Amino acid sequence: MTVTTEAPGLPALSKPQFVALMAMLMAINAISIDIMLPGLQEIGASLGVADENTRQYVITAYLLGMGCAQLFFGPLSDRFGRKLPLLGGLGVYALCALAIVFVPSFAGLLVLRFMQGIGAAATRVITISIVRDVYGGRMMAEVMSLVMMVFMIVPVIAPSVGQLIMIFAEWHMIFVVICLFAALVATLVTLRLPETLSIEHRRPFTVASILDAFGIVLSSRVSLCYSLAASFIFGSLFGFINSAQQILVGIYQLGNWFPLVFAGFASMMAVASFANSRLVKRYGMRRLSHGALIGFALASFVWAMASLFGVLPLWLFVVLYGAAMFQFGLIGPNFNAMAMEPLGHVAGTASSVLGFTQTIGGATIGALIGQAFDGTVTPLAVGFLSVSVIGLVFVFIAEKGRLFSPHNPSL
């Protein structure tokens, strides 16, 4: 497969090149969060914030900005194509990262992180729209799995990069690195990415057209319910990210080993995403994701019950959390593909509505889980169990009570 282009000056992309570029775009968001985790304590100390839970707002502000702006970038990309809005978002993202280097206060940092999230929203929405422009059905799930696999490599590397930066420089340099990465991705998009939305498939950028597209998205039971289910499951991931430094460094005293253990968890999700890309065409999205969601709930239940008896040994925490997050790697790409499948004719707007739901919902749930941290892993474990049960309810509604049954041979 090659991604052709209407612009004769641009070369076509092979499938591996396409997957790699989509993964780099998605990685923007992972880098924005994970690379700074080792520096949260110094950021708080530098800007006069002593409370550990308050420092978590550096992550929450970014996620809220990204979630809100997705409602704007989707319709914009349906009207003007994918490439121009994508480059605009990358520009805002990079400039905000550079401005943070000179920020004098924690409040100013939060404002710039919110604005940076607004720019990053373009990468979240438009990347999924581009994949949907090119693929459908199980092929979309396969490509999304490969994108997620490469995307998950970032949390393996990013905290270690952040830790390395903190050894040789102060926390401001983290945002310089973020800015440079965004500039690199923008250059590759400019030089290599073709426009995937043809002129005849573009929608007018009017209030009536946007509301019509939103109505199409919100009236699709399957799309809406899978998006809501994904929102709760992603909330568990954000909850862990918010409290990861407090758990792994505060409770388990890992110190400089924190990035290595964090990388191990991300590796499990990457392996699961790769396994999904190999298995999805054979078994289908529903069989894999429904089984994984049940496995996620069971692992979370055992973890929550075990945590009630005192501080878990590190090895048991790693096993139980790792088991849950391996299932996460099978849930995420399939739920997103099933939510987008019926909506290819309004892919940009669909991606924005679904992305808004997942990001704002996930960020809010993750913030609630993170703020519940009480010096133990019990709030996190109970949070995981709660979101898995709620996710199962939405899947039952989407499937009218029937799990594991493909709607057609391509799904």
From TrEMBL:
PANTHER family: MAJOR FACILITATOR SUPERFAMILY, POLYAMINE TRANSPORTER 2-RELATED
Main localization category: membrane
Domain Major facilitator superfamily (MFS) profile: 18-403
Signal sequence coordinates: none
Species: Rhizobium giardinii
Membrane topology: Multi-pass membrane protein
Protein name, entry field: Bcr/CflA family efflux transporter
SUPFAM superfamilies recorded: MFS general substrate transporter
Record-stated family: Belongs to the major facilitator superfamily. Bcr/CmlA family.
GO terms for MF: xenobiotic transmembrane transporter activity
Subcellular location: Cell inner membrane; Cell membrane
Keyword Acetylation among UniProt keywords: no
